[in-house]
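A further point concerns the way the authors explain their paired sequence and structure data. An entry of this sort, consisting of the sequence and the corresponding backbone structure tokens, reads as follows:
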Amino acid sequence: MVAIKAHQAQSFLNPPGPKHPAVLFYGTDAGLVSERAAKLAALVAARDNGEIIRIDDTDLDTDPDRLAVELQTIPMFGGSKVVRATAGRRITAQALQPLLVGGTLAATLIVEAGNLKPTDAMRAMFEKSAQAAAVACYADEARDIEGLIAETLKPHGLGITSDARELLVARMGADRALSRGEIEKLALYAAGRKEIEASDIEAIVGDASELAIDRTLNAAAGGDARRAVAEYSRALAAGESPQLIILMLQRHLQRLHRIRTDLDAGSSFEDVIRQQRPPVHFKQKDALGVQCRLWSSPRLAQVLKRTAEAAKAARLTSALEEAITEDLLIAVAAAARPAPARGAH
């Protein structure tokens, strides 16, 4: 029985890594879950030049037995095998239990999941199994972010002033992967210098929660449901409200509808973008161009109606607001890429 608390996770992953054949990473910080799963996979594979395989629900849709086969077969050319699996509708505690209880694992299993209560079947199974471990991954605190800043900037030979560090910590969200990405971007911006200053932070680093919301909206409007849900989880981890995200999505779709209507009337994309108020940020222009090609005005009108209904439902049943918002994001992404009509060639 191994339950690794959030503050113990770092030492748990120190080289050469734990010997457990099955490890679950779970928590509110999707980026940290992914980062730690990747670190453990690399540690295990490095022991004997092993291979790493990724499996999720979509893989099992076409080959339901693949997860069990991969976990119970030895690599043809020797070495270890690591299977990184994402918990979902097919990768469940019920599906994994026979493999853990039966002791037939020929590979290391690493499962990534969202926030799980102590009573959740997946978490309980990993915590109680003699050959498994469950690792909690929760939002970074300020001291964790300061450590991440130092760790990320060190290979670039960059220091950072105290004012800049304080400002950067304030702008980082609760998602480790997003934070690391922003710090890496900052390091590239300051390449060739010795120290990062507060003005550099102002110039290049956006607010993490705003970035997560923007990515959520663009993924949904761009037809990428999986990414929309992942970015939505990151926005929630950064403390954003589901109802705010619905409102922001509604505004985004309204703007997209106005642009699409003007394009249908014969205006050029450049002219329409130039006339938008408030102005379209240059970083958003390409994303809007892609989205305009995906959507028609009638479909945008339909999803705007559904968005209004979701906003009302979230207000009336706040206990379900997270699920309502996630369902809406998935529906919008699906509407962005409608199935071709039967008989179409």
Summary: The chain has 17 helices and eight strands. Confidence is low (pLDDT under 50) at residues 341-345. Residues 242-264 form the longest helix (23 residues). The radius of gyration is 23 Å.
